[in-house]
Amino acid sequence: MNATATPPLLVSRLDCERLESLLEQPLAQGLNTDALRRELDRAELLEPAEMPDDVITMNSTARFRDVNSGGERELTLVYPKDADGSPEKVSILAPVGSALLGLHVGAVIEWPVPGGRTIKLEVLSIRYQPEASGELHR
Questions:
Q1: What is the pLDDT of residues 113-137, one digit of tens each?
Q2: What pairs with residue 126 in β-bridges?
Q3: Strands (DSSP E) along 16-88, which ranges?
Q4: Can you give the residue ranges of every domain in the chain?
Q5: Dihedral sign computed on CA atoms, order 14, 15, 17, 22
Q6: pTM for this predicted structure
Q7: What CATH class is the domain 10-128?
Q8: pLDDT tens digit string along 47-68?
Q9: How many other C-beta atoms are found inside a 10 Å radius of the C-beta of residue 31?
């Protein structure tokens, strides 16, 4: 897959409803939420029980590889209230959080890093996904 192509995007209906509600709250005002809005607009919505287990949903923990360096890291995509500043958690309202939502294992995204550079991250695996664990109404 071409790393600059926009990967297909699957989002659970429940996540979409919660994220649209979040975008209406004062906490999201003034933040650059356009990318998240665009992602939700283009997403194919699925019921939580229909979500494939190789897709990043809210509260999923995924393993990534830096395509250039080969380094690996694990991230959990969280709602802002759960973003505690730890490097393992990324808020959906952060630019990279918006980019992670709905990605499949094998997808590659570009991630901006300090200094104006970007790195390419490949989704290697999903260690935890609420829907795959039967947590359909979390």
A1: 778 888 898 999 999 999 998 886 6
A2: 62
A3: 44-46, 61-66, 72-78
A4: 10-128
A5: positive
A6: 0.86
A7: alpha beta
A8: 999 999 999 999 999 999 999 8
A9: 14
